[in-house]
Structures are given as C-alpha cells and as structure tokens.
Design goal:
The structure holds two protein chains of two kinds. Helix content of chain A is 46%, strand content 8%. Chain A has helices at residues 3-28, 48-58, 76-83, 97-110, 151-154, 157-172, 194-200, 216-229, 231-236, 251-259, 263-277, 292-295, 309-320, 331-342, and strands at 63-67, 87-91, 116-121, 241-246, 283-286, 325-326. In chain A, helix 3 links the parallel strand 1 (63-67) and strand 2 (87-91). By secondary structure, chain A is of the alpha/beta class. Chain B is mostly helical. Helices cover 70% and strands 0% of the residues of chain B. The longest helix of chain B is centred in the first third of the chain and has 35 residues, at 77-111. In chain B, 40% of the residues are buried. Classes of the chains: A alpha/beta, B mainly alpha. The A-B interface holds A 1-7, 9-11, 13-14, 17-18, 21, 47, 49-50, 68-69, 93-94, 122, 125, 134-135, 137-139, 151-153, 155-162, 303, 305-306 and B 6, 10, 188-189, 191-193, 195-196, 199, 409-410, 412-413, 455-458, 460-461, 464-465, 468-470, 472-479, 481, 483-486.
Chain lengths: 343, 486
C-alpha cells in the first residue's frame, strides 16, 4: 500500500466513523444540549450536573425548583397544583450558593417566561465563602453557547455509550422518560425515623465552652454571598416571584448547634440574609424554625438535614398558604422569638 | 495546549501544517520558519499566557550571549566569564521558578524561620528549554555553533513537538534540517509515518496511561485503606503509566516532527527490557542522559580519573538528574537510589553478569518498580508507608474501589454486544489482569516503533483508524461526583 493511500484512508476513515458516531449523540441528544427531547424517545435522567442545564434550556415550564440535595425528594406532581404551575426540578447535590445561582441565572436566561422560582437556601452553606464550589470538574461545555467546545459532548465515549446508546436501549425496552417526581429522588429508598436519625446524626453531647462569635468578617462574607449568589437572579427577573425558604433541618441539628455554641451564630447569619432578601418585592421568604412539630417529626427525616417527599410537599403547602412567611414587619420579632424558643 | 486535545488535533495541527508547507511552496522560507515559530509560541501560551514573556526573555538572553561568545576565542577569560554569566543566568531562572519555594520551605524547616512561600507558577517545559539553551551557549563558547540567525535559533528552541517535554535536542540536530531545502516540501512518506507514530503515541497516552493513572491517583489518595495486593498492583500500574505516558509523548513528538520532515533524536528504547540499571538509563530519556554525560560527567572527568572518581561522577549525575525531575526530596532520593544502583552494578559487574538473564531482568524491573514509588509519592514518608503496605503481605484481596477503575466502558460494551453476564466483582479482576498482561506484552515483546521501518498495510490502516477514533472519543470523559447528600 502506498503511503499516500494510507494517510488518506486513515484521515478519511476516522472522519467518517467519528461523524457517524457523533451524529448519534447529536440526534439523540441525551443531555438536551441541542434540542428538546424527541417525542418518540424515552430519556433516563442521570447525573444532575450533566442533565440540568439541558432541562432548563429546552423543556417547557413556567416555574423552577432549585436547590441542593434537600430538593431532590420534591415531587413536582404534588407541588405544581398548589401554585398552578408547570415546574422543572433541577437539584444540584452538594452545591454551594454560587453554583446554584449560576445555574438559576442560566435557566432564567434560557426561559424569560418563568413566573415562579422556588429555591431552598441551605442554612449551613450561608456562611461559606461566596466563591465556594464543591466540585470543580463540572461539564462547563454544556453550560455555554460555545459550539466549538461541544466536541467534548459529541466525541465522548462515555456520553455515546452511557447516555446516547443507553437512551436508545431504554426506549426499546418500553420505559418512559423519567418524571420530575422520580428525578434524583432517593425518597423511596430512604429509611426515615428515629433509628435512621440516630445512625446518621453526629450529635455533640458536650456543651461548648465558648459561643461562636459572629464577627464583622462573617457579616461581610454573608453579605457578599447573598449579593453575589442569590440577589442577581431576583434583580434581573423583576416579574418573577421568588419563593425562598431556609432549609428546615431536624431539631437535632439545632440542638447540636446549641451544644457546640454556634446556634446564635447561624441565627444571626440567617437574620442578616433575610433582611437583605426582604428588600425585594418579588421575594417571598420563609423560615420554619418555629414549626417545632415539623422539625421534631422524626418520620420526616432520614438524617438531620434531609426530609422526605411528603415533608417537602407539606412545606410547599405552607408556602402556598403564606404560613411561616417572613416580612419586613415581622422579621425582628420572629428572630427574637426563635432565640427564646431555642434557649 | 496538549497533544491529546481536540483543539490540537482538529485545529492547531492542520493549520500549522497548512501554513508551513504553503509558505514553503511559495519559496517563503523565512516566513515559513517564522510561522512555525509563532505557532509554537501559540501552542506554549495556550497553557498560560504568562509563560510567554519568560520563554521570550530566555530566548533573547541566550541568543545574545551565544553571539557574544562567538566573538571571543574559546580559551579567553572573557569567554569564560560570558559562559559563566549565561549558565548562571539560566540556572537562576530555573532555580527561581522551579526550586525557590522548595528551598524556602526547607530553610523554614531547618532554621525554624517563617519565610512566606511565593507560590510561583512553574512555566511548563522550563527545564527542557533551559537545558537546551545551556547546551547551545556552551557549544557557542567552543565555537561548535555557527552564526545561526535569530529566526533559526527561535524555531530550534520553540519547535512545538519538543518544547514542553523534550527530547532535549541539539542545535546541529535541528537547524540544518530547517535549512535543508529538500525538507521544505510536503512529503507523503514522512507525513504518513509521522501520522502512524503519532497515533501510536496518542493511543499509549490516552488509552493506556490515562486509564492506569485513574487507579494510581485513587491509590495514592487512599494509602491508609490499601491492602498489600492493592499497593502492589498500584505500584505496577504507575510503573506502566509513566512508561506509556512518556513513551507515548515521545512517539507523538517524533511523529509530529516527522510530519514537518524533521527527525528528532530518539528518547526511548524499550527501557523495561533493560537487564541492569545502567542498561535502563541507556534506554530511558536518552537525551537527558546525553546532556548530563556531555556537560557534567565528561567535564568532571568521566571515567578517566580512576574507579572511585568515576563512581562519584556517576552519583553526581544521578543526583542532578533527580533534582532536575522535580522540587521534592522524593525526586532527589529517587535519583540517588538510581545512582547507587548504577554504581553497585558496575562495581559488582563480575557477579551481576553471571546471573541468568531472567534474574537480571527480574531484579532490574523490580528495582525500577519500587523506586518509581518515590517518584510518584508526595513525600518520602508517603512513599515509605506505601512500600510498607506492599511488604506487609497482610491482605491479598483487591479492593472493589480499585477494581472499579478497570471496569472500562469498552468492556461493558463488549459484554452487552455478546450478552456476557458480568457480576463486577468476578469480572473486574480479569480485566485488570488483561490490562496488565497487555502492558507487559507491549513493554517486553513488542518491538520498538523505531526498530522497524513503517510499511503501510491494510492491517495497520484499520488499526490506525480504530485507535485514532478511540482516542478522539476518549479525550473527554464524564466526571463522577461523589454526592454526600449536601
């Protein structure tokens, strides 16, 4: 064989095979990067960080539910009727405020007709650095509009086999597209109750010697965090209502904070964040710290942080009825009551 | 920019080849060389734009010094001073970027001081282009270089196939080739050979080294939980990872240069076939060995000043080699161990040569395998802990977490195609064994790419297509996020 023929065959052959295999991913588009789901295909939603952006780009919705793993157990079929909405659920397990803000801002850019946003604000992440991110190797090529870096998506064997070909097999097996009720939802596999809490709790029995001080540095960090990672979406979408709620951790979590001397610290943090957020008319803010019945219902929790689908639905019922809502009028009184209630 | 990246394969390489040969086609030799040099700078700056001033200043400084050295007789005091300035200048820059923080942290440890580390970003390839230019200025002193133009010098240093990871080339290996008009036109034979070599190198890197690297990274981040079997397997994985990584890189560099009709010196000659440590160093990173031999070992007297002086010279060379590889005591210890092994083999050569070849190979390979642990570890204590894990022989089970790294998607696809039932815990050890056997086979039985002339056949055409496609589809992956329910 001549060298020239070898070179031509190799380059042409590689080009043809790459094009054919890449076309499968472009056509099926398991991560909805290029187009909406094909009506004749069923999609098995997998990794959140790979799937969420595509959902927010190409799905049909007028409301967004977003947050960390605390939002994974939400069933949209239960909460949508409460607000007369058609929502998508895009949870980012383990995310900091920054990552969630960026995802939310992208979604609002893709879809300007969003009427409602529901965002769970993890109290424990409020005091992290504004630039805190848990995962650095996220597929950023899926989050932008740069066609050139889509080569990472199109010519990717993991995407080809685990996602594109899997979608074809999944469809052929007669499955239906993952519903938002089931998407990332661990509810049916979780164990709830006192035993589960005991196994997964790390209670600090010894009382703290000193109370954790809420410093000026902490104040600035929280202000920056809220300013950088919560307010932009609120400000840029003035016609959208933002239902923001502080995560209702189990009572044992707050007991733990009292024991280690950081309860007042976290309450101060929450209060500061609340006062900043209440400056915006399109924010409805909720805090459930007074709902001791809820927070001490062991059957709602699988660990001190995560609560069940039913518990989530109940929270959304509260919000739809305006219960536990913070306003500029009641915020100071509310946190005074909380201090007294927990001490 | 990495060779194993989309932007390099799809954009950079086709553009630079096209521009280079088109300009030569129009007899614009200088423009073609300029184009090659500029593209090489783009290649380098793509890693980090702040590297650019460093390499440009280094180029200008060394070219200036070499021109001054050419004006003076080689045995003059001026010439000695100029050379001293040039060498010290280069070493100082290398010291600052590569060793300054290491130096400071050791001063802090020894003298209990509190000097703040500078966290200096290490420019990629600085060790290579610095050594390349040191050899050039030394040769300039002895008038072994001609009065090359700055453009020729610029291309010689920045030529992208060898810029960031060698081989360390000499001026008389590259510049005459750049000047050779017969090499100015696109040559299909060279291009196809270069393409084949590049594909083989890319495959070694992407399809073997990177896969082994995942298991190695896991192993070194969880030493405390490793069984003895895990630790031994991981040590082998790293031994093969570094082999295929470096061999792959050398092949890619060689193949790319060949596409431009430039022949680079070979840097790698099946080192794991070595029958002794000295033999290993005749096969591994030859151009570095050549540099140290020519510019350190021989000036120190080489083997001309008696046996024990020879041993000291050998030890110094390996000590410097260890230091050159990285700013950590682990590299220095690794270099020293190799130096000692080199000396011992020479000293006891009478007894060594009486051993069977199998024994010689076995001892050499295991020595290399164990010393690579120091090369990979973050600290000497980590390396010792790792070695202790192996030596304890306390648990011969392989951890599922290790085996997972060998349950490749390619195997999953084959299982699915042929309907092979595959409980992971049964099948993964088989895949691991298969991968290790393939590695051993390639290292020990496969002829070196340079040992036989490339002849295009249907088989190697199909192999090239499959491998290149597999590599392209392996350049990007899917990250696994460990969700801890936050």
């Amino acid at each position: 064989m001549k060298h020239q023929l070898y070179a031509k065959l190799v380059l042409l052959g590689t080009f043809i095979i790459c094009t054919l295999l890449g076309s499968i991913t472009i056509y099926v588009d398991p991560l909805f990067h290029f187009h909406a789901p094909i009506s004749t295909m069923s999609y098995d939603f997998k990794d959140e960080r790979y799937t969420n952006d595509g959902i927010s780009r190409h799905f049909n919705y007028d409301a967004i539910i977003i947050g960390t793993s605390l939002t994974e157990s939400i069933k949209t079929s239960h909460v949508d009727p409460l607000f007369d909405m058609k929502s998508i659920k895009i949870p980012y397990a383990g995310a900091g405020y920054k990552e969630i803000n960026e995802a939310l801002c992208r979604a609002l850019e893709y879809n300007s007709s969003v009427k409602k946003v529901f965002r769970c604000l993890d109290s424990s992440l409020l005091t992290k650095s504004p630039d805190y991110v848990r995962y650095t190797d996220t597929p950023d090529y899926l989050y932008d509009n740069n066609l050139f870096n889509d080569v990472n998506y199109i010519f990717n064997k993991k995407i080809l086999f685990d996602y594109s070909m899997h979608t074809i097999q999944y469809t052929n097996a007669g499955n239906i597209t993952t519903t938002f009720d089931n998407y990332a939802n661990w509810d049916s596999n979780a164990e709830y109750g006192t035993n589960a809490l005991k196994e997964n709790a790390h209670l600090n029995q010894a009382a703290a010697i000193e109370q954790k001080e809420f410093t000026e540095n902490d104040r600035q960090k929280i202000q920056q965090n809220i300013e950088q990672n919560v307010i932009p979406a609120i400000r840029n979408s003035a016609d959208t209502i933002f239902y923001l709620y502080f995560s209702p951790y189990h009572i044992s979590y707050w007991q733990d904070r009292i024991n280690d001397g950081s309860f007042d610290y976290y309450i101060q943090a929450e209060k500061l964040a609340a006062s900043m957020l209440l400056e915006y008319d399109n924010v409805y803010l909720f805090s459930f710290l007074e709902n001791i019945d809820f927070l001490s219902n062991d059957n709602y929790y699988k660990d001190p942080l995560h609560y069940s689908s039913d518990a989530n639905t109940l929270l959304y019922e509260y919000m739809s009825e305006g219960k536990y809502q913070l306003t500029t009028e009641n915020i100071l009184e509310y946190y005074d009551r909380i201090e007294k209630l927990y001490h | 920019m990495l060779f194993n990246s989309y932007i390099f394969i799809f954009l950079f390489l086709p553009c630079v080849l096209l521009c280079y040969f088109c300009l030569h086609q129009f007899n614009k030799t200088r423009l073609a060389q300029c184009c090659l040099g500029l593209f090489s700078l783009v290649f380098y700056a793509y890693f980090n734009i702040s590297y650019l001033p460093i390499i440009l200043c280094s180029l200008l400084f060394n070219y200036l010094m070499s021109q001054l050295l050419l004006k003076y007789p080689s045995n003059s005091h001026c010439s000695d001073i100029m050379l001293g300035i040039a060498v010290i200048g280069n070493i100082s820059v290398l010291f600052y970027y590569k060793y300054f923080d290491f130096f400071l942290s050791n001063i802090n440890n020894i003298f209990n001081t509190d000097f703040a580390l500078q966290n200096i970003i290490l420019p990629l390839g600085i060790s290579f282009f610095t050594f390349q230019q040191i050899s050039y200025v030394i040769d300039s002193k002895y008038h072994k270089t001609e009065s090359y133009t700055f453009l020729e010098y610029f291309v010689f240093v920045t030529f992208f196939p060898q810029l960031v990871a060698g081989p360390i080339v000499l001026h008389n290996e590259i510049i005459p080739q750049l000047r050779d008009s017969q090499k100015h036109s696109f040559q299909t034979v060279n291009f196809s050979e270069g393409l084949y070599t590049f594909i083989m190198g890319l495959s070694k890197k992407v399809l073997i080294a990177d896969i082994l690297g995942n298991a190695v990274n896991w192993g070194y981040s969880s030493i405390a939980s490793l069984t003895s079997a895990d630790a031994f397997v991981i040590s082998l994985c790293y031994t093969f990872q570094i082999y295929f990584d470096f061999s792959g890189y050398c092949n890619m560099a060689h193949g790319l240069a060949q596409m431009f009709n430039i022949e680079l010196p070979h840097n790698f000659f099946s080192p794991y076939k070595a029958m002794s440590v000295p033999d290993f160093w005749k096969r591994w990173h030859n151009t570095l060995t050549r540099f140290f031999t020519q510019y350190v070992y021989i000036p120190l007297g080489g083997n001309q000043k008696g046996r024990y002086r020879t041993y000291i010279n050998i030890f110094i060379v390996f000590l410097l080699s260890g230091i050159w590889h990285g700013a950590n005591w682990t590299f220095i210890l690794w270099g020293c161990l190799h130096g000692i092994a080199n000396i011992m083999t020479r000293h006891f050569s009478k007894y060594w040569n009486k051993l069977s070849q199998v024994t010689q190979w076995f001892l050499t390979f295991n020595f290399i395998n164990i010393t690579w642990i120091f090369f990979r570890a973050d600290s000497i204590s980590q390396a010792i802990t790792f070695i202790k894990r192996i030596m304890r022989f306390e648990n011969t089970q392989l951890s599922p977490a290790l085996l997972e790294h060998f349950y490749l998607i390619e195997f999953e696809v084959l299982e699915s195609l042929f309907h092979i039932p595959s409980p992971v815990h049964y099948i993964a050890p088989i895949y691991l064994l298969l991968i290790l056997i393939i590695c051993f086979h390639i290292c020990l039985n496969h002829p070196n790419l340079y040992e036989k002339e490339f002849k295009p056949t249907i088989i190697n055409t199909i192999t090239s297509i499959i491998l290149l496609t597999a590599c392209i589809f392996s350049l990007s992956g899917v990250s696994t996020f460990l969700y801890f329910n936050f």
